[in-house]
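>> Question from a student workshop board

For tomorrow's exercise we were told to take the sequence and the ligand below, predict the bound structure, and bring the output to class. My setup keeps failing. Could a helper post the expected result so I can at least see what it should look like? The ligand is guanosine-5'-triphosphate.
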Amino acid sequence: MVLSKLKQGLTRTRNKIGHLLRSLSSDTSLEETMDSLEELLFTADVGPLASELLEKAETQLKSGELASPADVPQWLRDELTKVLLGPNGSPLPKTNSEGPTVVLVAGVNGAGKTTSIAKLCHWLGSQGNSVIVGACDTFRAAAVEQLQVWCERTGANCITGQPQSDPAAVAHDAAQAAIAQNIDYLIIDTAGRLHTQKNLMAELDKVARVLERIIPGSPHHSLLVLDATTGQNAIQQAKLFGECVPVSGIVLSKLDGTAKGGATLSISKQLSLPVLFIGLGESKEDLEVFDPGQFIDALFTPIQQ
Ligand SMILES: Nc1nc2c(ncn2[C@@H]2O[C@H](COP(=O)(O)OP(=O)(O)OP(=O)(O)O)[C@@H](O)[C@H]2O)c(=O)[nH]1
Ligand SMILES: [Mg+2]
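>> Workshop helper replied:
Here is what the output should look like for this input. Compare the format with yours to find the bug.
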């Protein structure tokens, strides 16, 4: 059987919860079922959602709304699918009919911003869009070069500035270039930062303000890249970034490298933000538009023994 990239990417998470799913399916008593469900939800790292679902399952099993423990696995799939927020239509609609649609990309150090931008260039390009990338990470020495290499591979144009120069100045130049060249999408790469780095957080705000001045209404999309391997910690990061820029959606990177894929479930729920894309590897093709139904199907696909 050829596994889809998503199923393959979720292998570690599926390995972690596989035997628990099997035991949940074979339980016959209420007590056993509740025990298995509890272990499954906590092992899957779904966060506070676990207690909510446990309470709901117990209430529904006792009231008869759920006729028997055998119905619990399907019930769980349905509940989890409902919890997940994916894109409503296109994940990155071309919002600006007058000029470039601007996508600002933020996140902590090493979250996968630059790699995700490369993947987005590839994805947007494959749909016939022209893309310019603004190399606004002027903070880290090798950042510009890394982005340039990706842009060459994906056919996007890269606008750069001097090392340590003002990122807002690069954003300014990139926005001007995108207008002059009548480009469909302008993507802005930014330096990794922590919420405690007040100057860097302020810099992000300044980049956004410069973009808005040159292209009114922009940035049209502000994506927060979260590293799926950080599990529940990603929630905290998202809240703090949200205080600085109005995050419109999440790119969840490195799902292939983690057994904590279940954290995805609580990220949507706790942030009330859609997961727009998921990263499933290190090459430009390893990006998928997030689809809650497909994600749950992949998560519940048994590991072949
Ligand atoms: N396995 C896997 N690795 C990834 C994925 N996305 C990014 N990476 C790796 O994560 C590391 C950091 O990625 P970058 O894209 O440089 O992260 P960044 O957020 O731009 O980092 P800074 O600019 O330093 O803040 C690199 O080694 C990437 O190859 C993914 O979806 N899967
Ligand atoms: Mg980077």
